[in-house]
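Quick entry, no commentary yet.
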Amino acid sequence: MPVPVVVTAAVEGLADEVLIKRVCLHLGVTVGQVYGRYGKSYILTRLNGYNHSAQFRHWVVLLDLDHDASCVPEVLTRWLPIPSPLMRLRVVVRELESWLLADAERIAAFLGVAVAKIPADPDSIADPKQFMVQLARGSRRRAIREDMVPNIGSGQQVGPAYTSRMIEFISIKSGWRPEVAASNSDSLRRCMSAISNLSEQEFDPR
């Protein structure tokens, strides 16, 4: 019997933590300790330390591409030129919301909007978070609008319960399906493949 893989993770925020646990659960991988949750800069300043740790234990680090580069290979080379064998640094194109939008049927139902409003290629959306907010603005459900759309004059980019709603969508039984989303998002498909391949990597105890 193969030994179940337990990964240590680092993420930008709470929604990212819930998502990576959901992905790993689908893949039969257990998530142990989770670091970060204080944004991208926090993780990048500690990435070399995580990479050193990945000589001895399995790691998954999840970061948004945002607009730091035009493509993932460019930032991978910049952020971590020589990854350890047990390190999986994965980049979301361009933000977490892209992967959530990749399950068009479920996100449309959750937001209370027509599925036709969801793009077929969410990885190509320039600002997925604001796209999600705009979808919520047109929701048939008042609670979604109130939670996810910022109040006029607040100066905020998202509504007061935006993150809670994203976590809810990832977590509920009728919510996000990673296997469906992966068929519409190349960056998610690559992430899931990389995590799956971790089970084939063993650490060197020397």
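second:
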Amino acid sequence: MTKGRCALCGGVFSKRKMARHLASCRTDGPGTAKRKVFILKVEGRYSSEYWMYLEAASDARLEDLDMFLRNVWLECCGHLSAFEIDGETYISYPEGEENGLDVLLGSLLYQGQEFYHQYDFGTTTDLVLEVVSDGERDAERRSVRLLARNEPPLILCQTCGKEAVWVCAQCIYEGEGWLCQECASNHECGEEMLLPVVNSPRVGMCAYGA
């Protein structure tokens, strides 16, 4: 299991211990106004070694959360994205009767809830989100902020065993194609198929990190 670093104090903890750490690490200044916030755990649905803890205000909207996930983990080519929450789908750029992302988190989320996010309906990156807790925090903080994030997992070159810095966008679908700098120059699929190894569940997909 990958460990992660607290964005508030710099401490390093496992995914499970991070939730307990954040409960004591997050402090408000004296006399600050409060608003309701949710603590969210986010991880790759099929790659749980990539994870984050976020603080999201109840008066933020799904579009704010979507933009945050795009900026930190997902955005490559302006693809569509969607949330699935309690059986309802909320999509960026909705058409007709579709639900959009202009919905307050406070009207949808509750403690213990699990919901899902998809980015790019062709080469899809799937995320699972859990509402770990809710409470009141400093009202002056931004709508969504990072509390903690996994440290980059060590991935080894499948040719020589050194640390991989490239992945083949074709071979990755067979669970292969992780390459060090030296071995990448000789990869049979060609250098045009290589993408950098990055700390994201979207590594190796579409043009992410290119």
